[in-house]
Amino acid sequence: MTDDRNPLGHLLRDQERLTAIGRVLRKTSLDELPQLWNVLKGDMSLVGPRPLLPEYLPRYTAFQRRRHEVKPGITGWVQVNGRNTLTWEQKFELDVWYVDHWSIALDLEILWLTMLQVLQREGISQAGHATMPEFVGSSALKTGTK
Questions:
Q1: 93-109 CB burial, b ≥16 within 10 A, e <16
Q2: pLDDT by residue (tens digit) across 116-126?
Q3: How many C-alpha atoms does 142 have within 13 Å on its Cβ side?
Q4: How far apart are CA 113 and CA 80, in angstroms?
Q5: How many CB atoms lie within 10 A of CB 1?
Q6: Of 137, 133, 114, the residue nearest 125 (C-alpha)
Q7: Strand, helix or coil at 125?
Q8: Which pTM does this prediction carry?
């Protein structure tokens, strides 16, 4: 990605800053390979909820924070069930479902489905975004539910 900014000095949207090489890396999911180092260091697993930006932490509901009960992963239940075509609420639901249903068999299924997803190149981005729009919190956060 480039560091291009608008006249006010704010970064342009991801989609506008993504280079041609970046698009190829994103489409083929090769941009995820450097995270293998984090797996080798023990900071991440191959499978688990994808890590999100640290600035999102205060925006989580108690339910959404449950995704942190397991190590983050390079791929996860969200990635094989819609990836970035899902809403934030759907992603959190799937992450917590994974936490509640974790098993070695489930991880093996996710790894297999991930290989198929990478080959099909589906769900990489949400319309109008290089990946996903910013998570600003949910209506559940404002109402105190979930």
A1: bbbbebbeeeeeeebee
A2: 988 886 655 55
A3: 4
A4: 6
A5: 14
A6: 133
A7: coil
A8: 0.71
